């Protein structure tokens, strides 16, 4: 292995990645918004998408967060199994979160759930949320996905009856309908089907890391049903209520059918960095 | 129709607006979210005077991202937050104070009645925090910083803040509700 990974290198790379995720939107989302702008038949809807595209440009040019809700930070960490980490990896990610809060800057969003006391640095019990996975190789990959509350609050999980398979699509469309303009449409809808109570939610959320052009026919069909609702950008009417729908599945108990829907606003923010290995 | 209005707003300013109109605001807007709404109502209940003026005010549902450099606050990003979280407290607020405009995103459930004849709901594009920051020229004061940065009441001096879409007008027309009703009909007919 070349280039030993250090605590300081992880801190620095994580701060840079948080900044990238907060200030730049992935290309696939920008392209989808541009296409939506072209296809919109409503003037108000087009004005909303135009404002969004202008906002993306200003944030990128000035390196400032796209949205004042810089979210809570969700980290996905892939650890190469040939990698030897002899330092506190979680500590490095926490330190990067504290520094990024000052440097990017991020809005301090982390509060105690009961006292509502704000930690003022986006850390706290269980925050940021870090999910670890072991993969092949000798690299460390850190992905950060800031998740804002506007769309997160509209997300739902339902333990469905196994015989209700046919009503999953209805459940998804109705969830987006009930959310209306609140989650900042055009949204991206991450759905986790199967697994268990908690795994369905994890599947739904991690599906948001996929790209817009990666949808299969079933996903496109649900997307088209959602867009036929006419809720439109920001709930002000129009053709574009959602940009993408992702259905991710996992085997589950024969007596269960958990379905989780994690709604994401148009700002589907995420960025990754890879450290170590032969580069 | 497009309107350019100055705060403090008069009753006549807002009565002329129809759902779907476009508005640009100049003057002072006050941010207030869940915690600030609760505190405003509590203080009024106890007969205490508020540290800011709500007569003719525009309340912005916003938890801005601010930065303090040498004791001076500046706006980094300040888009709207989900207004519906404040829906339950809004009728009470409007009964006690002559607030003339609410600015936010996503619409508000069951407030059209309490807005009638006195106050409008204006929608700003959600997530457009960098764009909004450009029209905020000064931050004269902050109140209740003990509630945390997002929940504090920030006085923001804005110039031509918009485009804001009139989501609910003073005649009880609610753009969000009518769009949602149509969507529900189309969903049920599938």
Automatic annotation (TrEMBL), chain A:
UniProt keyword list: 4Fe-4S, Iron, Iron-sulfur, Lyase, Metal-binding
Record domain Fe-S hydro-lyase tartrate dehydratase alpha-type catalytic: where: 13-273
Superkingdom of this protein's organism: Archaea
Coiled coil: none
GO MF annotation terms: 4 iron, 4 sulfur cluster binding; lyase activity; metal ion binding
Family: Belongs to the class-I fumarase family.
Stated name of the protein: Fumarate hydratase
Organism encoding this protein: Methanococcoides methylutens
TrEMBL record, chain B:
Keywords: Lyase
Pfam family of the protein (one): Fumerase_C
InterPro entries from the UniProt entry: Fe-S_hydro-lyase_TtdB-typ_cat, Fe-S_hydroAse_TtdB_cat_sf
Span of domain Fe-S hydro-lyase tartrate dehydratase beta-type catalytic: 4-178
Top-rank taxon, per record: Archaea
Gene Ontology molecular functions: hydro-lyase activity
PANTHER family: L(+)-TARTRATE DEHYDRATASE SUBUNIT BETA (PTHR43351), L(+)-TARTRATE DEHYDRATASE SUBUNIT BETA-RELATED (PTHR43351:SF2)
Family: Belongs to the class-I fumarase family.
Protein name per the record: Fumarate hydratase
């Amino acid at each position: 292995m070349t280039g030993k990974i250090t605590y300081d290198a992880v801190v620095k790379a994580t701060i840079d990645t948080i900044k990238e995720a907060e200030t730049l939107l992935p290309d696939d989302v920008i392209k989808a918004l541009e296409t939506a702008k072209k296809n919109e038949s409503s003037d108000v809807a087009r004005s909303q998408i135009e404002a969004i595209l202008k906002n993306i440009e200003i944030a990128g040019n000035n390196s400032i967060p796209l949205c004042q809700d810089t979210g809570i930070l969700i980290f996905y960490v892939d650890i190469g199994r040939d990698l030897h980490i002899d330092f506190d990896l979680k500590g490095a990610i926490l330190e990067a979160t504290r520094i990024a809060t000052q440097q990017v800057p991020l809005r301090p969003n982390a509060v105690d759930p009961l006292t509502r006391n704000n930690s003022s640095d986006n850390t706290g019990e269980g925050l940021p949320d870090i999910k670890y996975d072991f993969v092949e190789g000798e690299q460390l990959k850190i992905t950060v996905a800031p998740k804002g509350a506007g769309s997160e609050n509209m997300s739902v999980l339902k333990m469905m009856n196994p015989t209700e398979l046919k009503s999953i699509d209805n459940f998804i469309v109705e969830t987006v309908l009930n959310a209306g303009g609140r989650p900042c449409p055009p949204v991206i809808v991450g759905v986790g089907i199967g697994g268990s109570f908690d795994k369905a939610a994890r599947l739904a959320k991690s599906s948001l890391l996929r790209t817009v052009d990666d949808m299969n026919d079933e996903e496109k069909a649900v997307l088209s049903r959602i867009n036929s609702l006419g809720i439109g950008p920001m709930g002000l009417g129009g053709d574009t209520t959602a940009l993408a729908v992702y259905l991710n599945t996992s085997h589950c108990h024969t007596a269960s059918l958990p379905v989780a829907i994690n709604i994401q606003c148009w700002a589907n923010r995420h960025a990754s960095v890879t450290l170590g290995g032969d580069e | 129709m497009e309107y350019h209005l100055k705060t403090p707003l008069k009753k006549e300013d807002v009565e002329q607006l129809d759902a779907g109109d476009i508005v640009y605001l100049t003057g002072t807007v006050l941010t207030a979210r869940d915690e600030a709404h609760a505190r405003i109502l509590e203080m009024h209940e106890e007969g205490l005077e508020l540290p800011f003026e709500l007569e003719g005010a525009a309340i912005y549902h916003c938890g801005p991202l601010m930065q303090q450099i040498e004791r001076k606050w500046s706006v980094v990003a300040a888009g709207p937050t989900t207004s519906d979280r404040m829906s339950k407290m809004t009728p009470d607020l409007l009964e006690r104070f002559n607030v003339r405009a609410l600015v936010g995103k996503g619409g508000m459930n069951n407030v059209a009645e309490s807005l009638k004849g006195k106050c409008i709901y204006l929608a700003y594009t959600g997530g457009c925090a960098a764009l909004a920051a450009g029209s905020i020229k000064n931050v004269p004061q902050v109140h209740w910083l003990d509630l945390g940065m997002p929940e504090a009441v920030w006085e923001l001096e804005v110039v031509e803040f918009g485009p804001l879409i009139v989501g609910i007008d003073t005649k009880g027309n609610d753009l969000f509700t009518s769009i949602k009703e149509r969507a529900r009909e189309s969903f049920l007919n599938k």
